[in-house]
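[retry 2/3] KTSC domain-containing protein: previous attempt timed out, resubmitting with same input.
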Amino acid sequence: MRRRLVNSSSVRSVGWSDGTLELEYVNGYVYQYFDVPQPTYAALLAAPSVGAYINKHIKPYYEFREI
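[retry 2/3] KTSC domain-containing protein: success.
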Protein backbone atom coordinates (compact mmCIF):
# COMPACT_ATOMS: atom_id res chain seq x y z
CA MET A 1 0.00 0.00 0.00
CA ARG A 2 1.28 3.47 -0.81
CA ARG A 3 1.57 5.71 2.20
CA ARG A 4 2.12 9.44 2.36
CA LEU A 5 4.29 11.22 4.88
CA VAL A 6 2.44 13.28 7.47
CA ASN A 7 3.53 16.04 9.80
CA SER A 8 3.23 14.35 13.19
CA SER A 9 5.44 13.62 16.16
CA SER A 10 4.06 10.07 16.49
CA VAL A 11 2.99 9.01 12.98
CA ARG A 12 5.41 8.88 10.04
CA SER A 13 3.04 7.96 7.21
CA VAL A 14 -0.55 6.97 6.42
CA GLY A 15 -2.20 5.16 3.55
CA TRP A 16 -5.68 3.99 2.61
CA SER A 17 -6.93 1.42 0.10
CA ASP A 18 -10.31 -0.29 -0.20
CA GLY A 19 -11.29 0.47 3.39
CA THR A 20 -7.95 -0.42 4.97
CA LEU A 21 -6.12 2.39 6.73
CA GLU A 22 -2.40 1.78 7.27
CA LEU A 23 -0.44 3.77 9.83
CA GLU A 24 3.33 3.75 10.18
CA TYR A 25 4.48 5.15 13.51
CA VAL A 26 7.83 6.87 14.04
CA ASN A 27 8.95 3.91 16.17
CA GLY A 28 8.65 1.68 13.07
CA TYR A 29 5.47 -0.19 14.00
CA VAL A 30 2.84 -0.48 11.26
CA TYR A 31 -0.86 -1.06 11.93
CA GLN A 32 -3.78 -1.68 9.63
CA TYR A 33 -7.30 -0.61 10.58
CA PHE A 34 -10.21 -2.21 8.72
CA ASP A 35 -13.47 -0.93 7.20
CA VAL A 36 -12.40 2.71 7.51
CA PRO A 37 -14.49 4.90 5.17
CA GLN A 38 -12.66 7.15 2.72
CA PRO A 39 -14.12 10.35 4.29
CA THR A 40 -12.56 9.33 7.62
CA TYR A 41 -9.18 8.97 5.89
CA ALA A 42 -9.64 12.38 4.27
CA ALA A 43 -10.50 13.92 7.65
CA LEU A 44 -7.37 12.33 9.13
CA LEU A 45 -5.21 13.97 6.48
CA ALA A 46 -6.88 17.33 7.10
CA ALA A 47 -6.73 17.13 10.91
CA PRO A 48 -4.59 19.70 12.74
CA SER A 49 -3.17 16.83 14.83
CA VAL A 50 -2.88 13.44 13.14
CA GLY A 51 -2.12 11.64 16.41
CA ALA A 52 -5.05 13.19 18.26
CA TYR A 53 -7.41 12.34 15.39
CA ILE A 54 -6.25 8.72 15.40
CA ASN A 55 -6.70 8.43 19.17
CA LYS A 56 -10.19 9.95 19.09
CA HIS A 57 -11.69 8.76 15.79
CA ILE A 58 -9.80 5.63 14.69
CA LYS A 59 -8.49 3.53 17.58
CA PRO A 60 -11.78 3.28 19.55
CA TYR A 61 -13.89 2.28 16.54
CA TYR A 62 -12.00 0.07 14.08
CA GLU A 63 -10.54 -3.43 14.25
CA PHE A 64 -6.79 -3.52 13.66
CA ARG A 65 -3.73 -5.68 13.39
CA GLU A 66 -0.01 -5.04 13.59
CA ILE A 67 1.92 -5.98 10.46
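[retry 2/3] KTSC domain-containing protein: The mean pLDDT is 97.
[retry 2/3] clearing retry counter.
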